[in-house]
Design the sequence.
């Protein structure tokens, strides 16, 4: 499909890649000064793998040497960035000013399901009832208020009832034993009552402390969905209904209502009808300079859309994605994914352009420069993606 139809403007892959370069702060002239600017531009940074947050920020900063101290400042001192549960049960890092929008638009629905599931599983196992769980919850929040931040182990020392265990899915092949602390802290997270705090160890550690969530106003869910969609389309538009449904995890009726509420404009894409925010229909020119980027596993740009052919050739996917659909480290050239990269045990950042993806010497020089840039600010730190992919493991091996 292509071209305009009935006055609806066609936006092709080349223009979508130009928008991506500029709005996702990847072209050198578009790079940001602070982690807050990066998060604001992208709306959300994937936080399932702690290292992804820092690597995604570093790839977009004009001065990547400040990546770790400045991201630490934003997350843990100034708390201008907040790590919390968001869309699709996933942990993200959001600008603090958008936590209320995320909570009302997405968190409330997920939270209701999570609490109901916990109570159902506890009842089936003969564990204590909802009143008991409420007491434990209130006590846990009081402990966090007193301590400021605490690990799950520290919380269980203060509130021993968190150690209670119950059997989940008894008699089934996936039967397991859950502790109240694990399940309850997850529920409190999606309910917007607690957030992830400073990790134990370095910025690559996945062992987090918990902290009380910053206070935020309660918003109307429909209005919050419209606001979230407006921010996302500003960063990632154009996108199809399928892209929006996938990214948000909402029902298609919620997506359509939010699109109508913000007055989104329809455009023609190779995939079909897409949408942009009002006032964003005019052409966007590509950056004057060519650009390269090494983006981490789960980077929000690589994971931003459900339909990806306009920036990622289908034949590259087996090497770049794991079986659950998590993307690994990616090498970008002028808005397209052209290969993968990895860090070896000696600290060297190695990369490879996919077979058949000859990009030319100029591109290879820029990619090599980005690899050296990344190696420079990583220093002695070693990073292994939480979700390994075939391409990344092959490079390391």
Sequence:
């Amino acid at each position: 499909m292509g071209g305009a139809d009935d006055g609806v403007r066609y936006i092709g892959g080349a223009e979508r890649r130009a928008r991506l370069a500029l709005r996702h702060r990847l072209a050198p002239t578009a790079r940001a000064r602070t982690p807050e600017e990066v998060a604001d531009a992208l709306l959300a940074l994937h936080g399932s793998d702690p290292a992804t947050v820092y690597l995604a920020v570093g790839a977009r900063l004009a001065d990547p040497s400040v990546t770790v101290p400045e991201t630490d400042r934003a997350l843990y001192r100034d708390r201008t960035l907040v790590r919390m549960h968001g869309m699709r049960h996933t942990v993200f890092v959001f600008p603090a000013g958008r936590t209320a929008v995320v909570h009302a638009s997405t968190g409330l629905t997920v939270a209701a399901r999570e609490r109901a599931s916990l109570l159902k599983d506890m009842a089936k196992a003969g564990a204590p009832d909802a009143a008991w769980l409420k007491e434990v919850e209130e006590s846990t929040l009081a402990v966090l208020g007193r301590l400021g931040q605490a690990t799950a182990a520290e919380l269980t020392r203060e509130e021993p009832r968190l150690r209670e265990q119950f059997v989940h899915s008894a008699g089934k092949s996936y039967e397991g034993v859950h502790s109240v602390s694990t399940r309850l802290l997850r529920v409190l997270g999606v309910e917007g009552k607690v957030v992830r705090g400073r990790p134990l160890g370095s910025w690559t550690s996945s062992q987090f402390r918990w902290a009380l969530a910053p206070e935020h106003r309660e918003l109307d869910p429909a209005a919050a969905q419209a606001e979230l969609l407006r921010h996302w389309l500003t960063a990632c538009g154009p996108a199809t209904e399928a892209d929006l449904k996938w990214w948000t995890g909402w029902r298609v009726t919620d997506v359509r209502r939010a699109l109508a509420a913000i007055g989104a404009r329809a455009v023609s894409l190779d995939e079909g009808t897409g949408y942009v925010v009002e006032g964003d229909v005019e052409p966007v020119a590509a950056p004057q300079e060519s650009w390269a980027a090494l983006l981490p596993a789960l980077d929000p740009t690589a994971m931003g859309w459900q339909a990806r052919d306009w920036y990622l050739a289908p034949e590259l996917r087996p090497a770049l994605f794991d079986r659950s659909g998590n993307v690994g480290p990616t090498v970008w050239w002028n808005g397209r994914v052209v290969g993968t990269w990895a860090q070896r045990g000696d600290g060297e950042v190695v990369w490879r352009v996919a077979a058949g993806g000859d990009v030319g010497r100029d591109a290879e020089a820029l990619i090599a420069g980005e690899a050296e840039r990344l190696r420079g600010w990583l220093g002695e730190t070693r990073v292994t993606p939480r979700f390994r992919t075939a391409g990344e493991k092959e490079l390391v091996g």
